[in-house]
Amino acid sequence: MRLHVVNPNASAGMTEGIRAAAAKAAPAGVELMVTGAAGGPPSIEGPVDGAMAVPWMLKRIEEAEAAGVDGHVIACFDDTGLDAARCLARGPVVGIGEAAAHCATLVADRFAVVTSVPEALPVLRGNLARYGLASRCAGLRAAGVPVLDIDAGTPEALAAIRRETRAALDEDGADAIVLGCAGMAALAADLSEEFGCPVVEGITAGLSLVHALATSGLRTSKRGGYATPRKKTAE
Amino acid sequence: MRLHVVNPNASAGMTEGIRAAAAKAAPAGVELMVTGAAGGPPSIEGPVDGAMAVPWMLKRIEEAEAAGVDGHVIACFDDTGLDAARCLARGPVVGIGEAAAHCATLVADRFAVVTSVPEALPVLRGNLARYGLASRCAGLRAAGVPVLDIDAGTPEALAAIRRETRAALDEDGADAIVLGCAGMAALAADLSEEFGCPVVEGITAGLSLVHALATSGLRTSKRGGYATPRKKTAE
Amino acid sequence: MRLHVVNPNASAGMTEGIRAAAAKAAPAGVELMVTGAAGGPPSIEGPVDGAMAVPWMLKRIEEAEAAGVDGHVIACFDDTGLDAARCLARGPVVGIGEAAAHCATLVADRFAVVTSVPEALPVLRGNLARYGLASRCAGLRAAGVPVLDIDAGTPEALAAIRRETRAALDEDGADAIVLGCAGMAALAADLSEEFGCPVVEGITAGLSLVHALATSGLRTSKRGGYATPRKKTAE
Amino acid sequence: MRLHVVNPNASAGMTEGIRAAAAKAAPAGVELMVTGAAGGPPSIEGPVDGAMAVPWMLKRIEEAEAAGVDGHVIACFDDTGLDAARCLARGPVVGIGEAAAHCATLVADRFAVVTSVPEALPVLRGNLARYGLASRCAGLRAAGVPVLDIDAGTPEALAAIRRETRAALDEDGADAIVLGCAGMAALAADLSEEFGCPVVEGITAGLSLVHALATSGLRTSKRGGYATPRKKTAE
Amino acid sequence: MRLHVVNPNASAGMTEGIRAAAAKAAPAGVELMVTGAAGGPPSIEGPVDGAMAVPWMLKRIEEAEAAGVDGHVIACFDDTGLDAARCLARGPVVGIGEAAAHCATLVADRFAVVTSVPEALPVLRGNLARYGLASRCAGLRAAGVPVLDIDAGTPEALAAIRRETRAALDEDGADAIVLGCAGMAALAADLSEEFGCPVVEGITAGLSLVHALATSGLRTSKRGGYATPRKKTAE
Amino acid sequence: MRLHVVNPNASAGMTEGIRAAAAKAAPAGVELMVTGAAGGPPSIEGPVDGAMAVPWMLKRIEEAEAAGVDGHVIACFDDTGLDAARCLARGPVVGIGEAAAHCATLVADRFAVVTSVPEALPVLRGNLARYGLASRCAGLRAAGVPVLDIDAGTPEALAAIRRETRAALDEDGADAIVLGCAGMAALAADLSEEFGCPVVEGITAGLSLVHALATSGLRTSKRGGYATPRKKTAE
Questions:
Q1: Chains B and F touch (3+ CB pairs under 8 A)
Q2: I need a surface site. Which of B108, C180, C230, D171 has the fewest CB within 10 A?
Q3: Which of C42-46, C99-103, C211-215, E207-211 comes out lowest in average pLDDT?
Q4: Name one Pfam family in it (chains A, B, C, D, E, F) (predicted).
Q5: What is the distance in angstroms between the Cα of B34 and the nearest Cα belonging to chain C?
Q6: Regarding the domain delimited by C2-95+207-234, which CATH topology (the fold level of the hierarchy) does it fall under?
Q7: Which CATH class is domain E2-95+205-234?
């Protein structure tokens, strides 16, 4: 099975981090295709970045479709362009934000999200409301650290993430943590060990869920809002 | 006061229709700037169209900002790119979908939306959930007519819209109708007369609401998710 | 266009404050008629006050209808008697509570309400639930200051309002503030300046929204719960 | 124990019907005081009627308090003036609308309301949302029969009520019926027999619940929105 | 009228405590039958205990049915086995958790639950969501005290319960308290006195509600999910 | 990886059907252990069956834990005993009801459930509310066919399932179907082919999700409501 992981951020360094995380997380028998949305903004930290990134990401989706992949993971916690990607793909498409949230509800009563910057919170809140999982979310917290700093793994970034994790468990009453940024993937195992609870990171969750859907023979419904665009659109 | 109405669809004909509707609807003392998202898809009938249209629409937002407008109306019922536009603009930004829904709740207990094609329903449903107005919506109905046919005003299109309007009132228990497509603007007055209830069309609603916000001195908060993008984004 | 602003409180001083705020807020071309519910309780600080005030306020609505106004604003943040007023009026009717909440959701992701006394909170919470906007409200806070003290503008009242405003932004995560009492209208501009976010006060919001509805030709639906009362009721 | 049942409608005939229903429904050991809101509208069929009735009803509440009753039932399905009555009374106060809905959820998974006229539906919908029981309501149906005709017990009225009852069970999937009008009280037993399911009428439900609260020593909290009005209000 | 109170915990001491509380709370004219789920776990402090207790509790329900009781109260705040008991009983069945929550909403705007251990919270949260009363709940708090310690009435247990009660009122904004454990029944009166607000305990609430239903002639609907099990089940 | 699929129904025939479905659905590299809740009711068609089945099912969970499995699937669409099983297991536990619903939301905007008998609907409705996925469910439909008849595959059973499937798509507006009964597993592929949309059956969904969780290193949080029971419970 071939699965495509697309980084909607243009940053090549971030794409390499995602490639490494995906390689570690890929289910047995999965061949990975990892791409980045070169041409778009280096990192997505708000609605404008998101909007500018999507057309480039959809190009990667179409190229991967042409290459015959069996499913796609959108490796940005905003689930940037998820609906549009579902319209273009034959196989299943999963965003790492929704994947992590769904997985968290299967191993905990209520999860909290710890993400990068406060600007990201409204998008994540809106996504959870649409997915139906808002009632399972005990809190949304921003560590106040830009995405590229998280990627760099500075001690300040790590300290801020640990502080919000503890607050989410102790003050919000969460019993699992969702790491709300693709760049946090490498931290999941240590945080889970330290805090004694599930810490879900999206790349692993996304790959395992799209693999689960693909092995189950499930693909996006074309009866409703995810219908394949009529020709006009492609011009 | 100068207000910018942007058609996120590229279709010049549709932009002209919007210009006509906006000219009719503009509050006294408003100077209009009407633009279209030339470069993007001719019409937006699903998430892929929406995603491809936004970068072009944001260009129009930035041009209008440079021209010093006091507020913006996004003239597509999907409220395409609304969050991103709010980040870029100094003044208030309103989508015609949210504008029509808010206005409907001020003149009725429960409204129903009558839109063009079924593919549009999930986006509209998701929007209403995010805005918080889903509980005020008695039904979402598609007339099964493509946007460009509505614009052309064929008798079949009109008959389908009237059929769904009646069903929304009689079966769904709505007491007001929201026309879910910019191209339906010209029909509002006749439908209101025929069915004896408020029929809200978004261009009028959007212009009057953004005018209300601007005259009230209200503009998008920059404290949260609508912060002005940092420089990186503009490159 | 003539718009009627009715103060459901009997206090003449408060009516004068509302008249001043309305005069400042009125859109161009609007002629104001400002009345107070003389005969009812001096100020509305709970359900009993509200119930006793409504019949007197409805009298003002009927008198203003007889005088041919084009719309009404109910200038109490409880939106006292709003449904009944909608049944009696030909034109649109807006309460300052709902008006402020709707406007806030158009310029911010989540608003918080800062009101006078804790006794007011359940009514406001119930209203937001009915309007559908509860999910957009990050918090409801009472400054613990009686309405008439707010009107008097004591330093203690102002300090309490500023304290709760700060808490709403920092602790509740709001990115806009709604001032939950007609008597706070004069504070909006300074608070907005100080806290760097939209501060919505209801008189301005109410006037601009009812003006928006009236210029759009929208009036309360008579198909449902706002039907004109049958004769029996008037006896 | 002395319990007060107040009819917020002025109609003496309706008050007699309520007295008869209450006498039949009163728990053992309960002494009844039954009053009507003479001075207000003959029947409540919309928000204006409701608003005009409340001051008269609150007078009855105060008179009954002076007479030393242990609790109150508001015998109108709109729960007219319930919040205000709670502020004035020492003992518990229950509206027949909320009482019937709460009882229905204790004997069924989902109930439907069958009421008199469509104008009543928005108020009932709003009430259920505030009580928190909207998710337990499978449908709200109006028989299209005015309150006074229901009271008169015409065959047409009965046929319409039976038709909507059947539809609520078969089409809405309700497994219990709530009769949404005080005047339907006498029909409950026969309808329950005919349709083989619980048919809850509010006078019985209200009396038994207020009796339950009073025997449990529970009375309205004065810590929050139901605080006893300060003196000013009583003038 | 004969009412059955079943303790789904096996602990004989706890059953005696419940018997004492029930004897004190029983409405006039009620003959009590109090049983315990001997054979099951001594106390229910999580889903496994709950699951193991239900078959034994259902045996008690069937024995009480054979003895001709008019209704049942399930005396565990989890409402353990409530749905199953409703299928087996002719008369009404009420859990003390739902009973207390319903009663609290009739005497307060928003209640908070103070229970024993944090493990209990997810079950209670889930129950309130299903009952529809989650929106009326200002907070769920665990005192961190095991059920059997509460029963023993240690000073530490009482101090913890008082601490959480105060926090629920001051921080969560509740205006009534629900005691979330059958073993707390004896504390209700003192806490209500101390904190000046309704403190609802479930045994009194449950008995008074099932008595209210039974005197009203209401019993569980057999049209839907509570249908009497077909024979197969009884083998 | 070893995964345990437990049939909470005692019927050996049904367990064989589940074994066959599981064998077909198992991801590569998965060794299956399939058990049935011998000792409990032959089939679960309501809350009493469910309650009586759980203790036997938990025995199977404990035996499988002793045998060292890596995760469990509860093969009843009611997700019978799911919370209790999570407390007892080291690895992840997934119910086929929740698994199917989660998968459906990843390939469609809104799903509908087609299940066996109407008695099952309240449990399923309650489950979806608790999971948070109720807003994604367009309808819950019962084919009116007992579980054992579905297992036998009678033409009447198949016709009824097809009729409700069509109604769910055409009338409820679903764009995917969830088969709400373990015995329907064999029908999924044909129905998906016939109706041109995803048809999710729980055994495949459950196995693939628990496999996804286990390969991701995710297991149930023990910080909250799923804590391992203290010793007392095991006696």
A1: yes
A2: D171
A3: C42-46
A4: Asp_Glu_race
A5: 19
A6: Rossmann fold (3.40.50)
A7: alpha beta
